[in-house]
Please model this.
Amino acid sequence: MNLSDLLGPAEYVALSLGAGAIAVYFYNKWRPRNTLPIKVEHLTPNRPRVSTQLSTAGLLGKMMKHGRNVAVIYGSQTGTAEEFASRLARDSQRYGMKGMSVDPEEIDMDDIANLSDIENNIVIFCMATYGEGEPTDNCQELINWLGDCEDGSLDGLNYTVFGLGNTTYEHYNKIGKFVDERMAELGANRIYQLGLGDDDGNIEEDFVTWRENLWLDVCKSFDIDATACDVSMRQYELVRVTDINHNKIYSGEIARLHSYQTQKPPFDAKNPYVSRITANYNLHTGGPRQCMHIEFDISGDTRIRYESGDHLAVYPTNSAVLVERLAELLAVDLDAVFSLVNMDEDSSKKHPFPCPTSYRTALSHYLDITSHPTTFILGEIAEYCSEETDKLFLKSLTEPTVEGKRLYADWIRGDHRNIIAVLEDVASCRPAIDHLCELLPRLQARYYSISSSPKLHPSSIHITAVLTEYTTRVGRHVLGVATSWLSGKTPGESTAPIYVRKSQIRLPMKSSTSVLMIGPGTGFAPFRGFIQERDWLKQQGRKLGKTILFFGCRSKHDDYIYQSELEDYVERGVLDNLFVAFSRDQKEKIYVQHLLKDNAEVVYDVIKSGHIYVCGDAKHMAKDVAAALEDIISDKGGMSHQSAVDHLKSLSTRGRYTCDVWS
Model:
């Protein structure tokens, strides 16, 4: 009997849809990483272009309504690209143009193409590269759209790109480079060269240098006077709230008013879940440092799901001591309620953070008061100095000269000064608090690799975090914003706003595949979840491939975290090999890369058919580990060094060599 005799048309349709869904699922799950464009969802390419005569809404309508010709589109994950975009939009006014910053999530993509009908149009892209060469959350559709457009379809559009990246990572500024190249392929006119900002150096300095030259070239191209006019750079207007209704005042919520009191799933970056902390203890058994094991409750109807290797985002609160000190310096009533309202009525961003709110809430929950102030911030607050010497000093830190850059690097970055330290050391500088609230960047969520498996812990999420604490060379005591806040949390009583961010790092689909994990210090965190999952699979009777861990710490007696757990896994056969590098227990330091070379046969056996994972420091450890792996591949595989390098890259492309690293 033929299959056609058993199935009717409806059954054929159902089978086809099911097969298609399965194919899409496995393609998305196992496709090679770091390819562009990155497909997030299916988009209809090359939709009919809207006539400008009929377009009265959307980006094009807003641009035409007020005679704007500069659109600054940003892809931002931490707020830096968004801040650069706002500055560029305001810059345009100094040269007789009009601009606006644009969140690509809030526009119709085809409106970008239609901007070519505006005379002297300029589209500036501020594009951050996130993770391992990925677009930020808010510009994934933009990247898809650019990939779908036909070559030549953006003819008549003028553009330039500033990329934000970090040279510590392999795929440095991948998104910025892609947008720059793709726009040219689509027929747009590159009006100024690609700018690349390096967050491992001084990204503010990179941006300022690129920006100054950008406007000189734009003025030359459009035959505009290059002499900048002095215009107000304020974007928001202060509105004091005197008739206070506490039911309408934000108290730390990220987006929806009272969302922390009335929790509604799904939970994400704009709607975090306020989780009860059920465990919080120090994993270190000696030494001055502290490494915390913290557990967050996600039981009940939270609908929060996670997988081993995912990240947990935690929204921290600034130190009350620092908030009080800033208020003291600026003579601020912290309980006064206010709003900052965008003076650009067409902007989709009406406030820089949730408003109305109190200064206490803004400085505690919404603003970053501990990072290094940028040269832009320093230049703005310099105008508030009552002493000319103080004003000139702050201005000298902002100069795009060799001496200006050296002063900034030494006095701000070298001495780790935040805005409070600047105001303490420049006594006559007392900026208006509302202006400072406009200038300071948003306080961002902190991300931690989840150190548990949902197979063993479906109702809780564990993280492993080292308390950041140090003294600067000028004697200031510095504590990490999130880790110091978390360290004071009491199990069973304290809470924290959280959400789960999906990660690229995953165990292989087949449990019989061997895995090699390399994670010194808290880089071990995701591998604790991996090992828990392999343990669970073994208990279910599944066949396991080899499970090998290379771990590293300073001393066996001080910071060998989860030691008893690891030794138990070895004893029960869940871990086939455990190699631990104690860097300071002997005269010469030993790190994980040294142990990799000492156990080259074991390592190469996994390289041939298994999966390799690296987690931890990107700047040194990850590079040293990659070099060790390349040497092993070259030696054991009989290859040249370049062939070994290419082979490791090939493993990465095929998803068999995965790094989850940070700088």
In short: The two ends are 63 Å apart (CA to CA).
